[in-house]
Amino acid sequence: MTLAVPDLLSLALAVFFPVLAILAGRRKWLPDWSSSIILCYGIGIVVSNLRLWPVNSVLMESLAGGSMLLGLPLLLFAVRLRDSYRHAGKMLFSFALCCLTGILCTCGTALYFADQFENSWQVAAMLTGLYTGGTPNVQAIGVALSAPPEYLVLIQAADVLLGGAYLLGLVTFLPALYARIFPPTPLQGGADAGAISSDDSGGLWLGGLQLSAAATVLVASALLCRVLTGIWFDPTVLILLITTLSLALTLHSGVESLGNTYPLGEYFVLIFCVALGLLADFRDLADHGLELLYFSAVALAATTLLHLVLARLFRLDRDTVILSSVAAFYGPVFVVQVAAAIRNRQLLAAGIAVSLIGFGIGNYLGIGVAYALRWLGSGAAAG
User: How many CB atoms lie within 10 A of CB 175?
Assistant: First the structure.
């Protein structure tokens, strides 16, 4: 099949722009509230909304889905479940509180908006993923639930606005405010052992090995999906199988020979972001944009406040509260940034560890929330 010039331009943008975005993030060319993910969404949105060239929606949806299915196991290979549990301590408990509040508040928001928002269960599921593992979970859950592509873009846009404002507060004035509410963080020796390295994945040969491992998980998941459902691609079953197989493999010492798979996984996530941005024409989304922004604002505010209340009741220290919420909402890259801002390197490893755990459990929690809300909705309708 011969691709048209606009299709080649879209593919080139999706494949090569993430490299520039990653470089910008590593060279610290970006402000604190931004990230490589935001850059990649942004470039796609700019091209789409300025109509710089026609976008083939079928091609971009296929590229987005394929890149997410390959990127997800690579991100999950970086999880070290045993080490994370051993070193996390209070961080793990605070992170669990954040996950609990995320589930309660997104479900509550969905029920509140049920009469006004037809697909509130899908939005709540994706926000649950966002508040437990970050953007990759939003994308995976969206694919699993066959959510409209515009929902993914609008939720990410709302997170840029609302989550970016909260993150800016966490690196500026909020630590001083939280110091009046929470006890100080006790100093401990030997807490700096890293859960994940910041080095690159090790060259072309090791990158090829990592990609082969991810492809093997994808093929095995598709075969199991065929056995369980009779079809090769049931989005929900496939995402859960990929998540389960990837996490199971992390318990085997052989996965460590793959090196740091996170950078390559991040690259495929950024391809997804560019492709999804190219699908976002905000002139066609105006009818739903404000509703989703309001939904996201209510859910984020409720989740944040309830987490702070519970953390105060359990007398968790300030830095643990801050970094656990950053781990849940934003992911490991921002844990590093905020840990530097609050000048606490001893909790860096624990913060990164629980954020990687969030990648693993976020898909289960989000999809579970979706089915629970849909069941509640169907039960209410029947009643």
Answer: 18
Distance CA 116, CA 120 (A): 9
User: How many beta carbons lie within 10 A of that of residue 291, not counting itself?
Assistant: 15
- Give the Cβ contact number of residue 160 at 10 Å: 18
Q: Residue 200: left (phi > 0), alpha (psi -120 to 50), or beta? A: beta
Q: How far apart are CA 322 and CA 304, in angstroms?
A: 11
Spatial separation of the C-alpha atoms in residues 317 and 319, rounded to whole Å: 6
Q: Is the pTM above the cut of 0.70? A: no
Reference 156, options 128, 133, 127; nearest CA is 127
> What number of residues does the chain have?
383
Q: Which residue has the tokens 């105006």?
A: 286
pLDDT per position as a tens digit, 99-120: 999 999 999 999 998 887 778 8
For the record, the structure tokens of 194 come out as 């890293």
Torsion sign over Cα 284, 286, 291, 296: positive
What's the pLDDT tens digit per position in 321-335? 999 999 899 876 677
First and final CA of the chain: distance in angstroms? Answer: 52
The pLDDT of residue 337 is above 80: no
Q: Which residue is listed with tokens 């394929």?
A: 66
Q: Are 135 and 331 in contact (CB under 8 A)?
A: yes
Interval 32-45: pLDDT, tens: 656 777 788 788 88
What distance in Å separates the CA atoms of residue 161 and residue 170, rounded to the nearest whole number? 15
Side-chain-side CA neighbours of 75 within 13 Å: the count stands at 34
Judged by DSSP in three states, 345 sits in: coil
Q: Tell me how far apart the alpha carbons of residues 92 and 85 are, in angstroms, rounded to a whole number.
A: 7
Q: Residue 217 contacts by C-beta under 8 Å, 6 or more apart in sequence?
A: 73, 242, 245, 246, 249
Q: Where does residue 258 fall: left (phi above 0), alpha (psi -120 to 50 degrees), or beta otherwise?
A: alpha
